[in-house]
Design a protein that fits this description.
mainly beta; 43% strand; DUF3823_C; globular; Immunoglobulin-like; signal; DUF3823 domain-containing protein; 2 domains
Length: 228
């Protein structure tokens, strides 16, 4: 009799646990990218600590933020979300503030956002000999009255992840506080990086920033070069 009672209690315990564990798992996706609202070009960032996507699940009265970082190419993706309505904030990048958005997932699973970058950077690079590369670039401001250009830099790394926190070249940051923005934006810079190894791949990008809140950097695209 005791054995029957024990087995009965065990059965109900298993059923109860199964019911408690029978919750939906977050399996919905939100993905997209940020683009220059005037040119339509991709806006490049750094990862982490660059472009941030912050979500608030409006199912709850006091939702906690769900944060995830964008990628270097300005895209973002989160595949672990519940299907609900969300408030969306795109921030933390080197662009001017954008309005808060409201989306419903999975109905709005693709989200491309137009923003205005603080700086635009056009850059090209090439191998220059057995141990060097040359980078040519220019800078432009979208709102010259909003802030001074404070730094420009060539950043080199041996992996595709290259930004102000990930580089191998020495002293890449050039202080431009004493140089007028008019001169900076009307100059084509040509910088040479030496001391690189032959038979090696390098990843290069240009970074520059104004005196914006957070000292956020704008970037060029990542360029791969192979030293023969």
């Amino acid at each position: 009799m005791r054995k029957i009672i024990y087995l009965g209690l065990l059965f109900f315990a298993v059923v109860a646990c199964s019911e408690n564990d029978n919750y939906d798992t977050p399996d919905k996706t939100l993905e997209g990218a940020i683009f220059d609202q005037e040119t339509g070009d991709s806006i490049y960032s750094q990862t982490p600590n660059g472009l941030r996507v912050r979500l608030y699940d409006l199912k709850y009265d006091n939702p906690q933020p769900i944060d995830f970082w964008g990628k270097q190419d300005g895209s973002f993706k989160n595949t672990k979300l519940f299907g609900n309505q969300y408030k969306v904030i795109i921030d933390n990048g080197a662009f001017y503030p954008v309005d808060t958005m409201s989306i419903t997932i999975p109905l709005n699973s693709n989200l491309n956002v137009d923003v205005l970058p603080i700086l635009r950077i056009n850059a090209v690079s090439k191998v220059a000999g057995a141990d060097a590369i040359v980078v040519e670039y220019n800078l432009s401001e979208t709102k010259p009255e909003e802030g001074k250009i404070m730094r420009r830099s060539i950043l080199v790394n041996s992996t595709p992840y290259v930004d102000i926190n990930n580089f191998i070249n020495a002293n890449p940051f050039i202080n431009t506080e004493s140089v007028s923005d008019s001169l900076l934006t009307n100059t084509t810079f040509r910088d040479t990086i030496k001391g690189l190894k032959s038979n090696s791949s390098y990843f290069v990008r240009v970074g520059a920033r104004t005196g914006n809140v957070g000292n956020r950097y704008n970037y060029s695209k990542v360029m791969e070069l192979i030293i023969p």
